[in-house]
Amino acid sequence: xxxxxxxxxxxxxxxxxxxxxxxxxxxxxxxxxxxxxxxxxxxxxxxxxxxxxxxxxxxxxxxxxxxxxxxxxxxxxxxxxxxxxxxxxxxxxxxxxxxxxxxxxxxxxxxxxxxxxxxxxxxxxxxxxxxxxxxxxxxxxxxxxxxxxxxxxxxxxxxxxxxxxxxxxxxxxxxxxxxxxxxxxxxxxxxxxxxxxxxxxxxxxxxxxxxxxxxxxxxxxxxxxxxxxxxxxxxxxxxxxxxxxxxxxxxxxxxxxxxxxxxxxxxxxxxxxxxxxxxxxxxxxxxxxxxxxxxxxxxxxxxxxxxxxxxxxxxxxxxx
Length: 320
Known about the structure:
This protein is mainly alpha-helical. Helix content is 71%, strand content 5%. It has helices spanning 3-21, 29-44, 49-74, 78-92, 95-110, 114-120, 134-181, 193-217, 221-231, 240-251, 282-313, and strands at residues 255-261, 264-271. α1 runs antiparallel to α11, α7 (134-181) packs antiparallel against α10 (240-251) and α8 runs antiparallel to α9 (221-231).
């Protein structure tokens, strides 16, 4: 069993583990990384881009180095290599937990328990829940499901296919750093600049693949492509724009508009507004189902791409 087959088997097993079990409930590696990154920030923090860049290099570089060392250690044993890949994929992919949180909020809204939905929303996104009514919460959930399908599932699988376990761990490290310091708070406006920019670069291919697969897997492929083409560039995020626009078009809903983060009100462009309707509570479950289909298609697409590229690199693939 070659290295690429080991990766394929391991990635499939890891995603199956996520589908069946969700995130590890105790000792989650991403939580451990977050604690380590916070400790590094406590030592390095200065209100300066250079120190923030050093923080990014130390934390993300450390995750990549750890993944490379582990992969090198198990390389002689294909079964161990596949098991390491499965563990890494299970640890960094969060599609099942994403859908579970979304549906928990959706059930609260179906019961008419808006307060319970508000209390649960911070588990999923950073919106100010007290400023949202039931429809606003539903829209926030659908937007978060769309964006996190790219960040928590597809992006990791893309970088895993490119660079194996180091790519999986490195992508999750970059994405986690962006969530921790990449936002524009007074403390992190300069210090988090490098993490935010690196996350934009690392997330670029996964976001585009997510948008394509949402169009393929969604109920309205033409609507998804139309919304992506018309609205993606209006979004302030270069990666969330294509993903949210494609989900909006695929589901036939409108996303975007006025929202509040940390007391700061933003007026974002409407995505899917040409033909979409307002988000309803039932759309939360539709978005979660679409997210799962996109994740499964992403696994097949990235593994197939890795195997195809490998076949062309081999002597047989070159016709020798």
